[in-house]
Amino acid sequence: MVSTPEAPVALITGSSRGIGRVLAGKLAAQGANVVINYKNNEDLAEEALAEVRAAGGDGITVRADIEQPEDIDALFAAVGDRYGRLDYFVASAAASAFKPISQLKLHHLDRNWAMNVRSFVLGAQRAVELMPQTGGRIVVVTSYGSLRAFPTYASLGAAKAANESYVKFMATEFGPRNITVNAVNGGLIDTDSLEFFYGVPGMAPMESVLEKVPLGRAGTADDMASAVQFLLSPAAGYITGQVLTVDGGLTVVAPPFWVDTTGDLHDAVFGVTTDR
Ligand SMILES: NC(=O)c1ccc[n+]([C@@H]2O[C@H](COP(=O)([O-])OP(=O)(O)OC[C@H]3O[C@@H](n4cnc5c(N)ncnc54)[C@H](OP(=O)(O)O)[C@@H]3O)[C@@H](O)[C@H]2O)c1
Known about the structure:
The protein has helices at 18-29, 42-54, 69-83, 106-130, 154-174, 192-198, 206-210, 221-232, 263-270; strands spanning 9-13, 33-38, 58-63, 88-91, 136-143, 179-186, 243-246. By secondary structure, the protein is α/β, with parallel strands linked by helices. The protein has a single domain, classed as Rossmann fold, CATH 3.40.50.720. A seven-stranded parallel beta sheet has the order 3-2-1-4-5-6-7, sandwiched between helices. Strand 2, helix 2 (42-54) and strand 3 form a beta-alpha-beta unit. Helix 1 packs parallel to helix 2, helix 1 crosses helix 8 (221-232) and helix 3 packs parallel to helix 4. The protein starts with 8 loop residues before the first strand and ends in a 6-residue tail after the last helix. NADP nicotinamide-adenine-dinucleotide phosphate binds next to helix 1, strand 2, strand 5 and helix 6.
């Protein structure tokens, strides 16, 4: 499919890398115009735009630090100037300090809120203003830190929980405009930020967590982008105020774990091993 002026317009924050970038390619393959937002990596944003064009879509890149309200204004102004409307707003960019709560300083708390929660609310306000009378879609990318507690993730987890709460309130307020609002909640997803998190000094090895995931692997950016794409599709038109979890089952398991069982119990799930 080739992009046309009537094609949907999508703004994805943090789409120079990771989940946002994969989503940009998927929407482009449907002919969308995609606004690639980034903070630091202009080269990667231009690569993402080249991928969008190669996939059959079109778009622009816009540098905007979403921690800064004036940058958010400029980002949406750029969308309005270029396209005059917005159909899909996907809030994917995130950043935070990974520290024990006892070590969180005032600036960590304030910046975490500004970057991960305030930016979503300000973005949604501006997105709604640009959405046509026929409606639109808003999706925020959250994580299992909104549901479960683990080392150093308190700030970001609390922000993701706040976003999921905003999703419910936005769904009721924007519903009459035919705008749906949902979250996609990811488990361990194989991107740069996963490497960064497991690189925190003293963090438990990633393998010790992956073996607990019922599907036995990390998710991919494609797994996440596919779920967002579904929520943007006509098939999801009556779904709003929801959190769609994409975590390979991570948030439904609890100790004792199958991988820690032995003997017949272990064999019943993993098959008979020859080394015992
Ligand atoms: N990876 C996981 O394990 C995982 C799991 C669950 C949920 N998630 C969530 O998925 C979303 C995407 O994560 P990811 O792993 O795909 O990210 P990523 O690969 O680390 O990419 C982050 C993106 O955000 C942009 N960004 C960072 N700070 C920004 C700012 N202040 N303003 C604008 N853009 C900014 C980056 O742009 P630059 O490169 O230009 O800085 C980059 O495009 C996040 O909300 C994350 O919490 C991730």
